[in-house]
Each structure stands twice: as C-alpha cells, then as structure tokens.
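User: Design a sequence. Structure:
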C-alpha cells in the first residue's frame, strides 16, 4: 500500500474512533428514564442530612455535587438538582428526587414519572 493511502486510512480510522467516543460521552451526559421521589430525614451517602425540600437527587454513579437539569416528559417542567445520594434501588428507575424537586416537576401525586436529565 502506498504511504499516502496508509496515512489516509489511519486518519479516517482515528476520526471514526473520535466520533464514536464523542457520541458515547454525550449519551452518558444525557439520559432518559423513570424517576421517583423520596423524603427521608436521615443522612445521605454523601454524609449530609437529607432535606426533603432541597433540590437534590440520588443517582447510582454520578459524582456527588453533579448538577443535572431534569425535565418531566409528561408536562415539560424542568428543575436543576444536585446529586448528593446513591440510588435508586428500584429496578427500572434512573433517578430518585427529593420531594421539593418532585413538587416542582409536578409528580408528587403519582410518585414516579418519565424524565430526561442532562448535566449542567
């Protein structure tokens, strides 16, 4: 194979790898699924006391302190929350929100809803 063809092939392969990496990174930053709410008065996994009226949330793997914009897919309402706990521990759920965040999103009565979230 000629040198110029090898160089072009390497460049295309690298570009394809970078594009694949970018798409997986953006999908990690934005996620949709089911969310529920909880209102305890115990300590969270981050060590702070749970404040049900605060705009906080529990996620399985995002670092504590991460801020997420969460949008209720049913009514379009959004809220920015801070990750301070681990969970949810119910299969099929991606996020547990504080009662305050759930109230702003408008799903206190139902207990859970479909949401999309993205890092802020």
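Assistant: Done.
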């Amino acid at each position: 194979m000629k040198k110029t063809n090898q160089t072009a092939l390497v460049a295309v392969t690298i570009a394809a790898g970078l594009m694949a990496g970018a798409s997986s990174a953006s999908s990690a930053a934005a996620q949709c699924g089911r969310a529920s709410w909880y209102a305890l008065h115990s300590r969270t996994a981050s060590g702070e006391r749970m404040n049900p009226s605060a705009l906080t949330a529990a996620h399985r793997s995002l670092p504590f302190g991460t801020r997420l914009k969460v949008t209720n897919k049913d009514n379009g309402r959004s809220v920015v929350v801070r990750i301070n706990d681990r969970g949810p521990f119910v299969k099929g759920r991606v996020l547990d929100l504080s009662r305050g965040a759930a109230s702003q999103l408008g799903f206190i009565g139902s207990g859970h809803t479909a949401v999309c979230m993205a890092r802020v």
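DSSP finds two helices and six strands in the chain. Helices lie at 3-29, 99-105.
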